[in-house]
């Protein structure tokens, strides 16, 4: 627990107690009972604590998640730029590239969030942190590429729906400090899914990317 008077990540003592309770009890109902809280209120408390911790882990070391400022997530080196340079971890393997040129780079996400294969990322070749930093030409090309990616996925995997998502700043759930659009073929159901999706092996992603290129 945080030192008295210095609540790490801006967590209150009640929020720290909720985290300790869920660690100790292992399920929400028992954890809520252990701190004499109504379960709906306990869930809200736990959710707020989790968001504060996520923000604290995402922003630069010298910044505060509670200062009300716009913060781009802190991650060095940029994993997308590393991929462009041919550097990637042995765990994740090489990116499954669908399309690339001098301005844009289109590749499969490591794990699909829509409940089906085909979750695709569309990004800039140049290191651009957020949508506010794009040149006019990059913005135009990105928009056209996102639309083309959506048409490709509809043709190739015939989803029930398709979600386009783009996040700017740690508070808006941006995790990589390099602009990217998620183009997500989706089955009916909650988003994000209740259970975190498992990463797809590099070989399977590569095979899917090859199939998707036929529809590009």
Helix segment count?
6
Radius of gyration: 20 Å
- Major sheet size, sense and barrel closure: 5 strands, antiparallel
| Average residue-wise pLDDT | 90
H-E order: HHHHEEEHEEH
CATH architecture tag of the largest domain: 2-Layer Sandwich
Distance between the termini: 52 Å
| Relative helix content | 25-40%
Describe the structure.
The structure is a single chain. This protein has 216 residues and is of the alpha+beta class. The protein has 2 domains: 8-58; 79-213, HIT family, subunit A (2-Layer Sandwich), CATH 3.30.428. The protein has helices at 13-25, 28-34, 39-58, 79-84, 136-157, 202-213; strands spanning 97-100, 104-108, 120-124, 161-165, 180-186. Helix 1 (13-25) crosses helix 2 and helix 1 (13-25) packs across helix 3. The model is unreliable at 1-7 (pLDDT under 50).
Put the structure in a nutshell.
The protein has helices at about 15-25, 30-35, 40-60, 80-85, 135-155, 200-215; strands at about 95-100, 105-110, 120-125, 160-165, 180-185. It has about 220 residues and is of the alpha+beta class. It has 2 domains: about 10-60; about 80-215, HIT-like (HIT family, subunit A), CATH 3.30.428.
Features:
HIT family, subunit A, alpha+beta, 5-stranded antiparallel β-sheet, 6 helices, 5 strands, 216 residues
Summarize the helices and strands and which ones pair or pack.
Elements: H1 13-25, H2 28-34, H3 39-58, H4 79-84, E1 97-100, E2 104-108, E3 120-124, H5 136-157, E4 161-165, E5 180-186, H6 202-213
Antiparallel strand pairs: 1-2, 2-3, 3-5, 4-5
